[in-house]
What does this fold into?
Amino acid sequence: MEIKVLKDILGANEQLAAKNRELLDSKKVFAVNVMASPGAGKTSVVLQTIKALKGKVRIGVIEGDIASSIDAETVAKEGVPVVQINTGGECHLEAIQIQNALNNLPLADIDLLLIENVGNLVCPAEFSLGEHLKILIASVPEGDDKPYKYPLMFNTVDALVLNKIDLLPYVKFNVDTFTKTVKNINTKVEIFKMSCTTGEGVQAWAKWLTAKMKLK
Amino acid sequence: MHELSITQSMLEIVLKQAEQARAKKVTKINLVIGELTGVVSDSVQFYLDFLTKDTIAEGAAVSVTLLPSQAKCRTCNQTFKLEEFDWTCPHCQGNIVDVISGKELLVESIEVE
It folds into this structure.
């Protein structure tokens, strides 16, 4: 006997994500899901954002990693509340983990919650966490062909930070080709060129982010 | 590892439906997977074999209908197949397109005894 089901496999995650979103909205917390491949500079962008907005926006951080608390320790030195999630092998964060993390953060004292996802360009694109913005950090050494290879990720995000632009003189990376490809896959995406090493582009990014928070 | 959590969620849906139908055994699970999700059906079967041990879905086969990625152009309203390197509309060269198929991840039906 065949039984028709027609149920979305990610439906349970979507429901939990919606609950997270409700909680975040009720506490007036703006959440950003930060995604990238390993080593693109997620933690560096988080740190630069904290520094750029110090005294203006109260920030909290959720660090997602397969293992270790290295990133959480680095971020905690900046004096912001941080929760580390170790996924224990899973390659992405899911809404249920965020639900638990939110219970361990002083939400009343946070305006902006930066959620650093597990380094991966595949699965995080499919799991909503309840965030208001999805952003992707791409970096110059990864090459300008990445949008071709991970179209869903590049299609899903609201903004893209192209990090490590200080390495452009040393790496074969065509910014125009990259930008054009990204825009072909995602017409609405905002692109920011940045170097976390020199600080170039950080202010423009921070300004856009705070404008987005106010629009909410 | 992406397929593990997807298979877990899928199995929850399957077992719930089978229970509601008072089925004794689930023999087959029919899935609809969009091309853009990158879910590998062999991996789903691998995790399913592992996760279904001692459940009524033990030994169930997975059948996947793969849906191609398609988009609809906002300028000329025509639909087209998304090519790997270019998401530009082949009809009018417009580049504001909506993905209308390819992100699916559904349990379509189950076969039970």
In short: Residues 2-68+102-112 of chain B form a domain with the hypothetical protein PF0899 fold fold (CATH 3.30.2320.50). Chain B touches chain A at residues 1-2, 4-6, 9-10, 12-14, 17-18, 21, 23, 31, 36-38, 82, 84-88, 95-97, 99, 103, 105-113 (CB under 8 Å). The beta strands of chain B are 26-34, 61-67, 70-73, 79-81, 97-101, 105-112.
